[in-house]
């Protein structure tokens, strides 16, 4: 990972840990900037919830993976699964490579989430937007289960049952405006995710 990427992750950890806690109504903020950034491997993935993909389809909105991320759509079950590889972590913030984008197939308008950072303490997922700026786009409103597996050489943490929603009304409005649609809402569960992250001891 380059020095600029490292600086970006540290900045995002500090900024979005704070932003996410305020967005979700929390008051305690951990000093994320003091966390040490380390290489990591693993995967973050989420599956769209019931009715989400049909709603997007009805508005001609598609979800597409940005390499090395991927999106697999199952038309039989009307769900889409997003999978992103992890490349680094700093404290509770886990940096993924690639990303995904929403596309309005009628107008060609897009909204891209690149190099997401998934922070399991701040309970937010922030994205690098096409403008180059970061934004907290999604909230992790619940994490059902956390498992820790340690070996002599590695530490692995598994998070399951991560409930995802658009972080707030303002972001839902932004998505609708940029994609010229009205299908996005902060009050609707977007999907269910999981995160598996491994680092050296």
Notes on the structure:
The protein is an alpha+beta fold. It has one domain (3-200). It is 19% helix and 50% strand. The protein is built from 3 helices and 12 strands. The protein has helices at 3-23, 52-58, 169-179, and strands spanning 37-39, 41-48, 61-66, 70-74, 79-90, 93-96, 99-104, 110-119, 124-128, 134-150, 154-166, 189-200. It has an 8-stranded antiparallel barrel.
List keywords for this structure.
single chain; 201 residues; alpha+beta; eight-stranded antiparallel beta barrel; 3 helices; 19% helix; disordered N terminus
Number of domains: 1
End-to-end separation: 19 Å
Large-scale geometry: globular
**pLDDT averaged over residues:** 89
Summarize the main sheet: 8 strands, antiparallel, barrel
Instruction: Please provide the count of β strands.
Output: 12
Beta-strand residue fraction: over 45%
Cα radius of gyration in angstroms: 16 Å
Question: Which spans have pLDDT < 50 for at least 5 consecutive residues?
Answer: 1-7, 14-33
Q: Which structural class fits the helix and strand makeup?
A: alpha+beta
Task: Summarize the helix and strand pattern as letters.
Answer: HEEHEEEEEEEEEHE
Sheet with most strands: strand arrangement: 2-5-6-8-9-10-11-12
Helical residue percent band: 10-25%
Treating each run of at least 4 consecutive H or I residues as one helix, how many helices?
Answer: 3
